[in-house]
Design brief:
alpha/beta; TIM Barrel; globular
């Protein structure tokens, strides 16, 4: 089990102290938020190398929206995503986590022609063709993240993201599975993982209440066993609130995850 944790979840006055805390608790990697990454890039790369802590992934951080009704916003998102993919590759990360759109559709509904969602999926596929070319060239991944219905209308389940991946048909576009969102949207987390496992290249860990695994009612045991069954060997990153003392709660949660995998 290769565990990672988001940098904004780590205590510390600066990135150096955060990475030291990650190493102290046995994390193999840190997931970096993509916001302002260009200005933090050199420092993060240097500290990662000195501490022997990998960068598992870069999480979002791009401006604009891929599925905006405004061409300028789409172009801005596309530009930033390509740049973040390049930085991800140079940091040795698996890839960049991408949410195509938050909230409701921004494109017009042209019914009885095509619905807004149909237009979105066509547009997303076209944009991902271009993103995939960059990802393939530099050896990185665009990781599509399904979110629950309260955060986005478009890609809610793993199968939704996989359908897009199949259309793009590129090794540069894969899926990230988040236990918090799966707990809301999937009928069975373990079944969803097994059915879509070929495309899963990263995991986010959070319980049903967005706290550490073991603090809610999500069935991590079946989910983690399913990941083991499909031979998942990539990173699983903590993306959750930590209620209580970090140095006390993190070891308990890590132990809980290991127990679930027995």
């Amino acid at each position: 089990m290769k565990l990672s944790i988001q940098d904004n979840r780590l205590p510390g006055r600066n990135i150096k102290e955060k990475f030291a805390k990650a190493k102290e608790h046995g994390f193999k990697a840190v997931e970096i938020w993509g916001i302002d990454l260009a200005n933090r890039f050199r420092e993060i790369k240097e500290i990662s190398q000195k501490n022997g802590i990998d960068i598992s992934t870069v999480c979002a951080g791009y401006r604009g929206c891929l599925l905006s009704s405004e061409r300028e916003e789409r172009a801005l998102a596309l530009k930033d995503i390509k740049e973040l993919l390049s930085m991800s590759a140079e940091l040795g990360a698996v890839g960049l986590i991408v949410v195509p759109i938050f909230g409701p559709p921004q494109l017009p509904d042209s019914s009885p022609g095509k619905s807004a969602e149909e237009l979105e999926k066509e547009l997303l596929t076209e944009l991902l063709f271009e993103i995939a070319q960059t990802a393939e060239k530099i050896g990185s991944l665009c990781l599509l993240e399904p979110l629950n219905r309260y955060e986005t209308h478009l890609i809610n389940r793993l199968s939704d993201a996989v359908k897009i991946c199949r259309k793009v048909n590129s090794p540069g576009v894969k899926v990230m599975a988040d236990f918090f969102h799966m707990n809301i949207e999937e009928k069975r987390i373990d079944q969803a993982i097994i059915e879509n496992g070929k495309f899963i290249s990263h995991i986010h860990l959070a319980d049903s209440n967005r706290l550490l695994p073991g603090c809610g009612h999500t069935d991590f045991e079946k989910g983690l066993r399913a990941l083991k069954q499909i031979g998942f060997d990539k990173y699983m990153a903590f993306e959750c609130r930590i209620s209580g003392n970090f140095d006390e709660e993190i070891p308990k949660s890590i132990d809980y995850l290991y127990q679930c995998m027995k």
